[in-house]
Amino acid sequence: IPEEFSLEFRRTNAINTKPGQIIAVLEKYGIVISTLDSFIILIEGQVEGKTAQRGERLIQQLKPLIGEYIQ
């Protein structure tokens, strides 16, 4: 992930987010989720009953919205 994204996510995460909250959706990379003191990027996942997907296909399956929480 480009350094400028990393810096912006750290600023955003420190201000208004809670752990598990979606803070960005990056089409080429995946879903950015806040943690207690940083963030993680979900690059691969599997919806129940479906095959594992990455990046854009994962985003299409989950249809994540910024501000939602990952359960």
Describe what this molecule looks like in 3D.
With 71 residues, the chain is α+β, with helices and mostly antiparallel strands. 31% of the residues lie in helices and 25% in strands. It is built from two helices and five strands, in the order αβββββα. It has helices at residues 3-16, 55-62; strands at 22-26, 30-34, 39-42, 44-45, 53-54. Strands 1-2-3 form a three-stranded antiparallel β-sheet. Strands 4-5 form a two-stranded antiparallel ribbon. The chain starts with a helix and ends in a 9-residue tail after the last helix.
What's the gist of this structure?
The chain has 71 residues and is an alpha+beta fold.
Summary keywords:
single chain; 71 residues; alpha+beta; three-stranded antiparallel β-sheet; 2 helices; 31% helix; globular
Per-chain topology:
Elements (H helix, E strand, L loop, with lengths): L2 H14 L5 E5 L3 E5 L4 E4 L1 E2 L7 E2 H8 L9
Antiparallel strand pairs: 1-2, 2-3, 4-5
Report the oligomer.
single chain
Binned strand content: 25-35%
Pick out the low-confidence regions: none
Give the averaged pLDDT, no decimals.
82
Helical content band? 25-40%
How much is the radius of gyration in Å?
12 Å
Largest sheet: 3 strands, antiparallel
Strand arrangement across the biggest beta sheet: 1-2-3
Number of H- or I-type helical stretches: 2
| Shape field | globular
Distance from N terminus to C terminus (CA atoms, Å) equals: 24 Å
Tell me the total number of β-strands: 5
Q: Note the run of SSEs as H and E.
A: HEEEEEH
Broad structural category = alpha+beta
